């Protein structure tokens, strides 16, 4: 609990520091592209909170090192208030998402410690958004 | 024994079947039909409303896309970047996303109400298809508008328009329809319940009326039969009585008492036949204004004529000036029968007659302090020819009940063994 709180506070601080920079979410290619889906297994190297979309809360971004390689990906998960899982540096993680620019991935599903967390549906619609669609929960458990 | 309340044997099941079939055919089926028609019409209306609204929105979207396309074309001609252009247009409430694409459908700039969500898939699109994929965010309508910049370069404007308000409206309409449907079902159920109750009551009344008709018919037959029998019996009895009169004048004195006894027996038989005839005849009172105290007085006098020693045992407590309407002779006869019954049952103890006017009824009570009537017999005291006495036909109380009921009243007996018996009579009338 304390660690999560510390992470959140760090995230807000990071967001404040990055406030002046252009958000990657505003870039032309930064959207969930179903034609560019990938599956990446790796290890969490950093946990960040960054502004991603204009006038939105900071997003949880994980720096994931691909297993067996030096490549690193910036995995955008979701708003800091939405993701309720505890996540730590060094944990193994499998991500399904869409490539969205150089080294950037917009996550759809994360598999962590045997549990699957769904943050977007198969077309990229965010689970934390309301609207006319069916109700969505904060977290779902399933398989790829 | 009287038979009341039901159809003849063997027809009960038929009546029930008929009742259920009538209820089904005349009420349940038409009402169900009305509900189905309502549901179907409601469904058609909502479908039609939805289609019309969708067409309207599509039309509006096309116009919006066209207008935006003209503006974007102008801005592109002026050299603005796609990102700057989208920044100029503040997203409207119903615009879910906007994107400017190049000719090859590569996204140059975009904005959306949902972070990272732009439903476009070129890999799945067949040649000639737009590549738009269905959105799970409810009803979203799409438009692709071709935009030409001044330098001849072609772009595409991709718009997504929501119909959330329509969805809400349709959902509300659906809920209202469901509520109204439920209300209709409830009202219908209440209506059917009342109708079936009314029908049950009507059927019960009809059965009672039929039973009454049958009873009256039977009574008419019995009455005609007994009148005939009585007439046949009384003719030879009259002849016998005359014969005894002749014998009285011609037999020796020692035999006169025997002849007299024989004539008494003939008279007794005639009396029995008369009482039997009157028991089965219908009672037809001739109503006239009466005073209750006069009716009770007449009954007492008749009793004392038959039982002179009973004067000290009978106590009369009747309110003065109590007016009623009825046949004085018949009412006095009914009271006389009750008094005689009480006298014979009480074996020396007192008899009390009370009469008074209540708010809507006239109440008469005949009470004795005799041994009472066992509970097993209490329900039968008004049956014809039922008697626990050695003498009598057992029709006195039966006649009393017939007379009371012919006047629109009712009579009941209350008794406890060892504690006397009350006969309670109520007539319509009273103080009002």
Helices and strands, with pairings:
The complex is a heterodimer of chains A (144) and B (432).
Chain A: H1 2-18, E1 37-50, E2 59-66, E3 72-79, E4 92-99, E5 104-112, E6 115-118
Parallel strand pairs in A: 3-5
Antiparallel strand pairs in A: 1-2, 1-4, 2-3, 4-5, 5-6
Chain B: H1 12-77, H2 82-88, E1 95-102, E2 107-112, E3 140-148, E4 154-162, H3 164-250, H4 253-280, E5 288-291, H5 292-306, E6 314-318, E7 323-326, H6 328-346, E8 351-357, E9 361-368, H7 375-378, H8 396-406, E10 410-415, E11 421-428
Parallel strand pairs in B: 6-8
Antiparallel strand pairs in B: 1-2, 1-4, 3-4, 5-7, 8-9, 9-11, 10-11
Helix pairs in contact in B: 1-3, 3-4, 5-6, 6-8
Describe the structure.
The complex is a heterodimer of chains A (144) and B (432). Chain A is mainly beta and 144 residues long. Chain A has one domain: Nucleic acid-binding proteins (OB fold (Dihydrolipoamide Acetyltransferase, E2P)), CATH 2.40.50.140. Chain A is built from 1 helix and 6 strands; from the N terminus they run H-E-E-E-E-E-E. Chain A has one helix spanning 2-18; strands at residues 37-50, 59-66, 72-79, 92-99, 104-112, 115-118. Chain A has a 5-stranded mixed barrel. The longest helix of chain A has 17 residues, at 2-18. The radius of gyration of chain A is 14 Å and the shape is globular. Chain B is of the alpha+beta class and 432 residues long. Chain B folds into 3 domains: 48-162, PAS domain (Beta-Lactamase), CATH 3.30.450; 218-280; 288-428, 2-Layer Sandwich (Heat Shock Protein 90). Chain B has 8 helices and 11 strands. In chain B, the strands form 3 sheets. Chain B has a 5-stranded mixed β-sheet, covered by helices on one side. In chain B, strands 2-1-4-3 form a 4-stranded antiparallel β-sheet. Chain B has a two-stranded antiparallel ribbon with strand order 5-7. In chain B, strand 1 and strand 2 form a beta hairpin. In chain B, helix 5 crosses helix 6. The A-B interface holds A 25-26, 28-35, 52-54, 56, 59, 76, 79, 100, 106, 120-121, 123-126, 129, 131-134 and B 82-83, 107-124, 133-139, 162-164, 167.
């Amino acid at each position: 609990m304390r660690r999560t709180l510390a992470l959140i506070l760090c995230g807000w601080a990071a967001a404040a520091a990055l406030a002046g920079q252009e958000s990657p979410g505003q870039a032309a290619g930064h959207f969930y592209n179903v034609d560019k889906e990938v599956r990446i297994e790796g290890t969490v190297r950093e946990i960040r909170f960054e502004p991603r979309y204009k006038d939105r809360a900071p997003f949880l971004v994980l720096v994931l090192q691909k297993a067996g390689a030096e490549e690193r990906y910036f995995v955008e998960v979701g708003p800091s208030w939405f993701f309720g899982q505890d996540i730590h540096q060094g944990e193994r993680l499998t991500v399904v998402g869409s490539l969205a620019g150089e080294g950037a991935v917009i996550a759809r599903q994360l598999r962590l410690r045997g549990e699957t967390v769904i943050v977007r549906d198969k077309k990229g619609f965010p689970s934390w958004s309301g609207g006319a669609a069916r109700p969505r929960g904060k977290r779902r458990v399933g398989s790829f | 024994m009287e038979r009341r309340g039901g159809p003849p044997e063997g027809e009960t099941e038929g009546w029930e079947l008929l009742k259920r079939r009538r209820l089904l055919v005349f009420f349940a089926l038409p009402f169900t039909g009305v509900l189905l028609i309502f549901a179907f019409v409601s469904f058609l209306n909502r479908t039609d409303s939805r289609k019309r609204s969708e067409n309207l929105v599509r039309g509006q979207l096309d116009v919006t896309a066209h207008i935006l396309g003209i503006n974007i074309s102008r801005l592109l001609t002026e050299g603005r970047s796609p990102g700057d252009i989208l920044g100029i247009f503040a997203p409207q409430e119903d615009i879910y996303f906007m994107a400017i694409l190049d000719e090859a459908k590569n996204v140059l700039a975009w904005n959306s109400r949902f972070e990272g969500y732009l439903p476009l898939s070129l890999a799945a699109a067949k040649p000639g298809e737009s590549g738009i994929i269905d959105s799970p965010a409810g009803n979203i309508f799409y438009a692709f508008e071709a935009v030409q910049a001044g330098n001849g370069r072609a772009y595409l404007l991709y718009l997504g328009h929501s119909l959330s308000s329509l969805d809400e409206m349709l959902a509300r309409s659906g809920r209202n329809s469901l509520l109204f449907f439920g209300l209709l079902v409830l009202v219908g159920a209440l209506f059917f319940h009342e109708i079936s109750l009314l029908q049950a009551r009507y059927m019960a009344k009809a059965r009672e009326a039929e039973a009454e008709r049958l009873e009256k018919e039977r009574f008419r037959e019995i009455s005609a039969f007994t009148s005939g029998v009585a007439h046949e019996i009384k003719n030879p009895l009259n002849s016998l009585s005359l014969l005894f009169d002749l014998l009285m004048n011609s037999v020796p004195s020692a035999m006169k008492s025997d002849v007299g006894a024989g004539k008494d027996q003939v008279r007794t038989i005639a009396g029995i036949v008369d009482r039997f005839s009157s028991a089965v005849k219908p009672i037809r009172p001739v109503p006239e204004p009466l005073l209750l105290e006069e009716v009770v007085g007449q009954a007492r006098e008749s009793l004392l004529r038959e039982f002179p020693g009973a004067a000290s045992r009978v106590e009369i407590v009747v309110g003065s000036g109590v007016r009623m309407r009825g046949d004085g002779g018949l009412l006095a006869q009914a009271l006389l029968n009750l008094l005689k019954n009480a006298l014979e049952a009480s074996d020396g103890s007192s008899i009390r007659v009370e009469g008074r006017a209540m708010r809507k009824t006239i109440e008469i009570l005949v009470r004795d302090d005799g041994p009472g009537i066992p509970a097993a017999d209490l329900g039968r005291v008004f049956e014809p020819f039922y008697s626990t006495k050695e003498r009598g036909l057992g029709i006195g109380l039966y006649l009393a009940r017939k007379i009371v009921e012919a006047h629109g009243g009712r009579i009941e007996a209350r008794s406890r063994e060892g504690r006397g018996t009350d006969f309670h009579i109520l007539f319509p009338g009273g103080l009002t």
